[in-house]
Amino acid sequence: MSAQRLPPDQYEVTVERPEDFDTFWADILERLGNVALDPRMTPAPLRSTDEVETFEIHYTSLDGIEIAGWYCRPRAEYIAPPYPALLLVPGYISEPTLPKSWAKLGYAAIGVAPRGKLRSNGQFNPGYPGLLTHNITDRNTYSYRGFYADAIRAVDFALSRPEIDNARIGVHGSSQGGALTVVVAALRGDVIACGAAGAPYLTGFMDAASLTHSNPYEEINDYLRMHPDHLDAVTQTVSYFDCINFAPLISCPMLVYIGLEDDVCPPETGFALARAMRNCQAELHTHEHCAHDAGAYWEMAEVEAFLAEHLRPAGSGRPEMTVG
Amino acid sequence: MRPSNFDSYWDNVDAELAALPAQPVIEELPLRSNEYSTVYALRLTSIGPYRIFGYLCVPTGDGPFPALLQTPRYGSVNHIPDYNDRLRYVCLQIMHRGQRLADQPYAAAYPGLMTEGIDDPEEYIYRGIVADCLRAAEFLLSRADVDSNRVTIQGDDLALITAARRSGFALVNAAGLTFYELADRRHESSAYPVEEVNEYCRAFPDRTAAVESTLAYFDPLHHAQALDADVILSVAGDSTRYAPLAEALSGGCDFYELTHRGGTDHDAVDALVAGRLGVEPMSRFIRAFGQ
Fold it and tell me: Which A residues 110-129 touch B at CB under 8 Å?
C-alpha cells in the first residue's frame, strides 16, 4: 500500500506551542543581555578590496562562549556612512559567509558563525552530524538554545557599530540560515526591519523528519531509531525551537522562498511557516521542480530587491548567491 | 599550459602513496545504520603520513554491489552518503585532510584552504588532498563486496583527477569544476573559493606567476587524456567553455545542461548514473509514502 503525497499547502503540521514558550525565550534573552558583548574587530587586509574593508570579528554570547564572524563594510571613500546592516546567517554544513559582495552593494554586512561552526568551536563542538540532536531531550541544554542566541547576539554587534544606521538592520539566509532569519526577526523585533528566508529549516521538525530521509533531518530519524522511548521528550524539546512557533512574533516584512520538491526542508513546512507569519507582511515565493536550492537562481534578484526596498543601500552590483 | 614535469609530479605522489600502507580501520556506526544499509567509520593513511576519514556504507544483502565514491566538497563538512544512494550502492564519502573528522592535527580554514601553500606545487595543500582521494579510490576499488565493473566517482575536479589516475571507474559524474582553466578565468568571478585566489594574487602580485603555475597541476584539462571512463559533466549554460576538456578526454563525455531546478536536475542525473550502473533511478523527493 502506498499513499500519494498531498499538495504541500494542504498539509497540517503537528507542531504545538508550549505554554511557557515566551517565558522560556524571555529568560534566555535576559541571560544573554547580562553577558558583556565585548565586541572585537581585527582587520583582514587579504580579504579587503578597494571598495570593501573586511574584518574578522568576535563577540561573547550565552554561557560566555566566544563567537566569530566576518564583518564587511564599504570603504568611506566608496560609499559614505551611515550604512544599513545585513546579518547573513549560515546553513547547517556551510561555512559562514564572507559577505564582501553584499558590502559592495552598500551594506555593513555581518557573516555570523554560531557556536560549533569553524572559529566558534573551541568551547562547543558537537560536530556534523551531531548538532541537530545534541542534548535533544532537554530544552535547557539543547544545542540550538545557544546557537540561536549567537545569531541573535549578532544584532547587538551591529548596534555597537557607529557607522550602522540602527533603523535599517535586516537578516537573510537559507536553510538553517532561513531558520535563523526567522528566529532573529522574531526575537529582535525591536530592531530588525526585514528578513529574507530561503528553504527554512528547523520548521516543523517532527513533520519534516517524517517527510524525508535526507540530511540533516535524518539525524532525528537515526536518533529515534536508536532511542524510540525518547520520542515524547524530543518532540517537546524541539517545539521550543520550532520556527513555526516563532513566526507569530514577527512584525517586520518577510520574504520566504521554497522549492516545491525540496527533499531537505519539505515544502509542507514552508507553507506552514508562512501561514504562521500572521502578524507581519509576509510574501511566500514557491518554485516548481526546485529542491533545496529553493529557486535561488531566480530568487536572488528578488531577495536583493526586497532587502533594498526596506534597507535602502547606496551601492550597486550583484551579491554572491546565498546557499544553505 | 601543462607543466613540463606534470607526469613526474604526479608519479611522485603515487610513489609516496605506494610506500605507505593504508592501514584501514573500519568501525560500525549503529546510530547511522538501518535495516537497509550499514554505515561504518573508515580511517586510512594517506601521504604525509596523514590519517583521513570516510563514511563507508554497505547495502544489506548479498553483494557484490555497484559502488559510488563521493569526493569531498569545498567546505569543512561532508554529509553521510544520501539515504537513496545507500540503498543501491556501496558508498564511500571521503573527508580529506583538514575537514571535520580528519582535522587533527591539521584543521583547514575556510576561506584559506584554496591558497594554502599555493606558491609551490610541492607544498600546495591540494597535492595531499588529491592523494587522499586516490587512497580512497584504491580502498573502494579493492573491496570484495564491490562489483568492479560498476563503480562511479562523483564530485568536482577531484573526481576527474582521481579517475584519471586510478583506472577502474566506469563513470565519472562531475559538476561544479573550480580548477578548470582557473588561472585564465579567475578574473571572471568574485565568488568564493575562486575569490581566495584573486585575493592572494592581489596581495602578493609578485607571486602570481607561481600561483598560476601551481594551479596548472590541478587543472582537469591536463589530466583528461589519462581519463578513459565515461564522463557526465553538469554545466550551467553554454557548454562550449568545456569543449576543450571534452575533446581531451579519452573516454566519452556527455554534457547535462542544468535547469537550475534542483529537483529536475537531481532526478535527471540520478537516472543517468543509475542507468549506467544497472539500478533503479530514485528521486530524493518522496512522492508517495509506504512504498
Answer: 118, 127-129
